[in-house]
Amino acid sequence: xxxxxxxxxPWDVLGLGALWLILMAxxxxxxxxxxxxxxxxxxxxxxxxxxxHSVFPGVVIAFFITRDLASxxxxxxxxxxxxxxxxxxxxxxxxxxxxxxxxxxxxxxxLFALGxxxxxxxxxxxxxxxxxxxxxGRLGLLxxxxxxxxxxxxxxxxxxxMAGVAVFTMLLLxxxxxxxxxxxxDADLAASYGYRxxxxxxxxxxxxxFIVVAAFQAVGAILVIALLxxxxxxxxxxxxxxxxxxxxAALHSLISAVGGLYLHVWFNSxxxxxxxxxxxxxxxxxxxLGPVDGVVWKWFKDEPPALEESSDNAGNS
Amino acid sequence: xFEDVSVLASVLDILIPGNGSGxxxxxxVLLGASCGLxxxxxxxxxxxxxxxxxxHAVLPGVVAGLIYSAERSPGVIFLFAAAAGLxxxxxxxLMMFSTRLKSDAALGxxxxxxxxxxxxxxSRNQQDTVGVMNFLFGNIGSIDASDLRMMLVTTxxxxxxxxxxxxxxxxxxxxxxxxxGLGYPVKILDGVFYFLLTFSVVVALQAVGVVLxxxxxxxxxxxxxxxxxxxxxxxxxxxVFGVTSGITGGLVSAEVxxxxxxxxxxLSATMLFVIIYLLAPRHGVLSKVMRTFRRRMRVRxxxxxxxxxxxxxxxxxxxxxxxxxxxxxxxxxxxxKVNKDCRALLSRGxxxxxxxxxxxxxxxxxxxxxxxxxxxxxxxxLYLTNEADYAEDHVHEDAEKIEHxxxxxxxxxxxxxxxxxxxxxxxxxxxxxxxxxAQPSAALS
Lengths: 317, 445
Fold this sequence. Notes:
- The complex is a heterodimer.
- By secondary structure, chain A is mainly α.
- Chain A is 74% helix and 3% strand.
- Chain A is globular and about 60 Å long.
- In chain B, a hairpin with a 5-residue loop joins strand 2 and strand 3.
- Chain B has two domains: 2-283, ABC transporter involved in vitamin B12 uptake, BtuC; 291-445, Arc Repressor Mutant, subunit A (Orthogonal Bundle), CATH 1.10.10.
């Protein structure tokens, strides 16, 4: 195969479907990348991990009642389960001498296990929601989903839903950017301006749960965490400025969506995992070559860093 | 040399039971032992989520093992899995060392990327990796003799290493700087620790599955941590809990068709944890609630006694008895509530009720305790005004709390320090329980 064929291969195989896959992956990854950047700054990356595991029983129970994967009750159930996990963590580490990290581990493994067991007991084998879906997501099945006619082309419904989620998240971000920035860097200062830390914390947790549920069906419970953390972490290694960081994180999710599609087609591998692996490669590049934290630049100490912004080091705190 | 190995192997083979349920139970025992032991260090060192990262990171190793070993030899799979786990742990350390990223982000990145890589590789080679679901969610029934032999050897290495290194490892878990000061090679020990951690993850792999290994590492050890303050006992209990939940989970999942073993084992471990969380004698929630409740009741009783004393004092110790109504007014509470408190005092022999049922007097014991409380209160007020330069009208609230806590030894020190005072800062006499017989009313009781 010639080089050019490698590049055009997805379009030859999937046609317009390739565009839908890229858009879907991007719309899933974009809101994750933005909220994930804040999770990184607040050192709560593993809270994302805990939430993504623990929403599972909520989704299963809601699905058992409604029998509809698109039902909004799934989001309610997942939000409640996510809330339950934070409450359990608090219950364990406030009341006993077990520390926060172990409490987190106990809480999310228990809820995830409960989810798997409930799924097997309540739903049996003959439904859309199964272990494969929990691990791999339904991104690869996107082209078989129902479609609606929009602007003269048949758009798969999940793409529209995720686009809605992405737009909603970006709107929230635009509205509360100042509050979230302030409270992530200096919670005390934010509190002195009258922004209640607890409200911000639980509000953010709720938004993260919401996004995790939306992304859950596409990429599975465990790969969600990669979409949450990787873009933010890669961007964090490239800049000291929050706005630039968010922009780079968004770019990261776009490139991993496109790259993921290519990996998916070239290797005939699972689409969701391919997107994450591509994101991982991008992170590796940022780790090695990132303008701020690149390991390569640190090896050659004599050379000046590519980007000098020491006067504006908002990202340092 | 090779003969020794083969002799050892045949000894191991004798240990491996023939029938299926025997194998499952043995797997549960090995799993409980290795994860239980390592889990104690994981919980104490607060690296619980490192276990999670390592357990997810072994997935590509498992997939590689399934693809590259034609006969699926467990040795090869274990080797690849251990290598992937160690690589993951190493990357986490490297990332934290060389960038501004904190441990949480580094753990999350390694966990998710390795896992995704494993899934991608697996989905590409579907037919070569049929058994991968067993490794993801565990299936204790799929463990055969050669798997068991591998688990047995790994667990033995782990237990022996732990036995010889338990003191330095323990020291390091509590105070890394101190153990460095003692001359322990902390970096090497750290490496050994992550090596052992990966080993225990690999042992648990086939029974519990990649996703829920961290439940086996964390939950039994955390439950043991709530039961004892001694490290050896914690190790033992943690192993027992691990084995128990392993066996329970294995049996239940074999009984109910289609249930993956890992989640059931994780849930039984969680159940054990919940029971211990509620019922543990010292660190359990119920005992803590009970302790708080009992302390609050004692404070209520003592305040009651104090109120009775103060009523007597206000009357110049002229009457022998106080009425429930007076007490209720003094305490600002309803009569029913006071009656309830009186019953508690009565059952402990602090007071005696008069025959009419509406008045009462202090017993000898009651007088003693009431005087002690009032003395503690007034001594403390005096101490605060004289020694700590508090204003007279600011000392009451503080004394209100400490009067219930002061021990006899401290009271004696206070008395000596204040030169055996007779009046508190408000001019009221400080009672002397030691001279109880001299009290006018006390002589009657």
